[in-house]
Design brief:
The complex is a heterodimer of chains A (391) and B (137).
Chain A: H1 5-11, H2 17-32, E1 38-40, E2 43-46, H3 51-54, H4 57-67, E3 75-78, H5 88-91, H6 94-110, E4 132-134, H7 137-147, H8 156-165, E5 167-169, E6 183-187, H9 194-208, E7 213-216, H10 223-236, E8 243-244, E9 255-259, H11 261-270, E10 281-284, H12 291-301, E11 312-316, H13 318-323, H14 325-333, E12 337-340, E13 356-359, H15 362-372, E14 375-378, H16 381-389
Helix pairs in contact in A: 2-8, 4-6, 7-10, 9-10, 9-11, 10-15, 12-14
Chain B: E1 4-7, E2 9-12, E3 15-22, H1 29-32, E4 56-59, H2 68-77, E5 84-87, H3 92-101, E6 105-107, E7 119-123, E8 128-132
Parallel strand pairs in B: 3-4, 4-5, 5-6
Antiparallel strand pairs in B: 1-8, 2-6, 3-7, 7-8
Helix pairs in contact in B: 2-3
The chains are: A alpha/beta (391), B alpha/beta (137).
């Protein structure tokens, strides 16, 4: 790998231990994937912020690197952590909350913003073709496929190193030749709601391996639908982007896959492990809700009240909540909880006694049995809300 | 019997001589190794119950969450880390872990030639691994 004079000095330790470690991570990973150089990035987004997923082991490293005085050199954002400031922090033990605040403090010391969301793309407009180093897989697919930015799927530590150095090795989808589609997917059924888009992602992720698809038949898909598709595609697969039908590619040269109604139905069925109509938690907001989704939820709720002993969580970023205050006030009056900075997957639902989760998110339904030790029901937003409100 | 010498790719510089602990299966450091005592805890894993401390840990590659990298750092801080890591094909999780923990690491080594208990000399600067068999075969 070719390094500039300044990069070499960082690599040799002239700027201290922590900068050296970060540079070594980027260079070694670059070598592993045959990168030839480091390229500047516009932003970095770090995953592995929740104490639930991190556990105790990383705290030593985060403490050491934060105390070494390194600072982020580009805009650097954080994935959701394990608690919020208003609701869950009062329900979970003070030990857990203390550890979580400690982890956040180390990230802040390095200059990371408390975005605490898996949807950093709502915080700021990103340019097409911007190079990024993002670690949240759903955001990676969204950035590459919907926004037209360029990012590999980073791990937590490599995104951290990229945030400090402000660069990433030039490999994977940072190179035009690796962004070429290999498979033509023909969706031969019309997808009726966000959950079916999610189910499509789950189905495709399992069969695509690392082959980038062109997906035909997504007419009328909203950005929120594509968000669900990308999030679940990344949950079961390695592919980091997809194209839609309007792309000028020689489709004759591509391997072909068709998706039928029964494939979507089967994917939905596999993600439903309980038939209960009284779930311990109804969860909307994986990935975090957009302003549009919050408005849609408020409209759907109207003046109804959540029935007694039902937990309904709407998760979003505090940034989106502030912008959507008109709607969130209305939603909260219904008895639903607007929860920011975290979500059902990265908080301790098991410690809250939650054993069944109903959700409209295929990604959550995919992860909840292992990460939350919960049974799941996957069903569209409208049905989730009906379950919460019917008396 | 003459030691066997294998050539590999340098990942993290350093050298050591220690006993091998060999796994035919990949290792996930997050959830697979207990950072509190350095023991492999993955259910059904062939090395379940074995401690990685002071061993030359040989396995095909890592898998699982990238948080696993931090586990290697934590093991070093508690003096529970392996002396070196030998992989068949290095993956990002273990590479990053070995860098932040400063554990000598080499890959592109045919780990089938190493058995648990062999005495292994790792010299990453030279890119070589010397294996002295525990028993004549």
């Amino acid at each position: 790998m070719h390094l500039t004079k300044e990069e070499e000095r960082i690599y040799d330790g002239e700027f201290g231990w922590a900068n050296q470690i970060c540079m070594k991570i980027l260079v070694r990973l670059g070598e592993l994937f045959n990168a030839t150089k480091l390229i500047p990035i516009s932003s970095a987004h770090v995953s592995g912020v929740s104490y639930k997923t991190l556990g105790d082991a990383p705290i030593d490293f985060l403490e050491a690197i934060a105390n070494a005085g390194v600072k982020t050199s580009v805009k650097a954002t954080l994935n959701p952590h394990g608690i919020d400031k208003e609701y869950l922090c009062k329900k979970l033990s003070s030990d857990i909350c203390k550890k979580q605040w400690q982890i956040l403090e180390y990230f802040n010391k390095m200059g990371f913003k408390n975005s605490l969301t898996c949807t950093p793309y709502y915080l700021e407009k990103l340019g097409r073709g911007a190079h990024l180093a993002w670690a949240e897989s759903s955001a990676v697919v969204y950035a590459n496929s919907v926004i037209g930015a360029w990012t590999n799927r980073e791990g937590g530590p490599s995104a951290l190193a990229a945030a400090i150095i402000g660069k990433t090795p030039d490999y994977g989808v940072h190179k035009t030749e690796n962004r070429q589609p290999k498979v033509l997917v023909n969706v031969e059924t019309s997808l009726r709601n966000e959950t079916e888009f999610g189910a499509l992602g789950i189905f495709l992720g399992k069969i695509l391996e690392d082959k980038i698809p062109v997906i035909q038949g997504l007419q009328g898909a909203s950005q929120d639908h594509l968000k669900q598709l990308g999030a679940s595609l990344a949950s079961t697969g390695m592919v980091n982007m997809f194209y839609r039908n309007n792309r000028k590619v020689k489709v004759n040269e591509l391997e072909k896959i068709s998706v039928e109604k029964k494939d979507i139905r089967r994917a939905m069925e596999e993600l439903t492990t309980t038939a209960t109509q009284k779930p311990d938690l109804i969860f909307i907001g994986c990935p975090h809700c957009s302003l549009r989704e919050i408005r849609q939820i408020a409209d759907c709720i109207g003046t109804r009240k959540v029935k007694a002993e039902t937990e309904l969580w709407i998760c979003t970023s505090h940034f989106t909540k502030e912008k959507a205050w008109k709607y969130t006030e209305k939603i909260e009056q219904s008895g639903a909880h607007i929860i920011t900075d975290t979500c059902a997957v990265v908080t301790w639902t098991d410690k809250l006694g939650i054993k069944t989760i109903m959700t409209n998110s295929a990604k959550t339904a995919h992860y909840a049995p292992t990460l939350n030790k919960a049974e799941t029901t996957l069903t569209p937003l409208k049905d989730c809300l009906e379950t919460a409100f019917k008396g | 019997m003459q030691p066997i010498t294998l050539k590999g790719r340098r990942i993290v510089e350093g050298q050591c001589k220690a006993e091998a602990l060999v796994s035919k299966k990949p290792i996930s450091f997050l959830g697979g190794v207990d950072p509190a005592d350095g023991k492999i805890i993955e259910k059904g894993h062939e090395l379940c119950g074995e401690c990685v401390k002071d061993k030359v840990l040989c396995f095909p590659h890592g898998h699982g969450s990238t948080v696993g990298s931090y586990v290697l750092y934590s093991l070093v801080k508690k003096n529970l880390a392996p002396k070196a890591i030998i992989n068949q094909t290095a993956d990002p999780v273990v590479v990053v872990g070995a860098i932040i923990a400063n554990i000598p690491m080499i890959d592109q080594i045919d780990i089938k030639q190493i058995e648990t208990g062999d005495l292994v000399e790792v010299n990453v600067c030279k890119g070589i691994v010397k294996i002295s068999k525990r028993r004549e075969s």
